[in-house]
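Quick question, first post here. What does this chain look like in 3D?
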Amino acid sequence: MLILDATVIINFGAMEALPLIHQVLARPILVADEAAAEIRHPPSAVEQLHQAIADGWLRRHRLATVEEFTWLAELQQRAPSASAGEIASIAACLANGWSFATDDRRARILAATAAGGRKVEVTGTVGVLVSAVRLRVIDRSEAERLYQGMIAAGCHGPVRRLSEALDR
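> Answer (accepted):
Ran it through. Tokens below.
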């Protein structure tokens, strides 16, 4: 399972490319209720979020187990400035052994440094785009076009050009 953070949904949604995530990732995909609530703009991201849920390839996740709530409390203490969506998503990942897709640097560090030696496998917008190219879902030029559009829309990626990540 993979949980998407609001940042990834907003980036792909801004380019009307949210379904690309479903095409690339061959596993169930979730969004924590708290992360879904953070997605208020752009309108295309909100619309695509609702459509993905209606289509059934993206499912909402509500924290429900003692282990999820235990991780939630610990993470809230460790990172009080993190968003509710990030904290809930990471808590669900830690409790269930799931992966996490986020572009927020602090959330990535928090997920990678959980107590008890547990770590969450993390990817993000660049990782999904790189996988899309490597799996031949889209070509390099389309991936670069999407990434540059995301940057123009406000995405803060780890590389200036997607080719930097593709050529590693």
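The chain has a mean pLDDT of 92.
The chain is about 55% helix and 10% strand.
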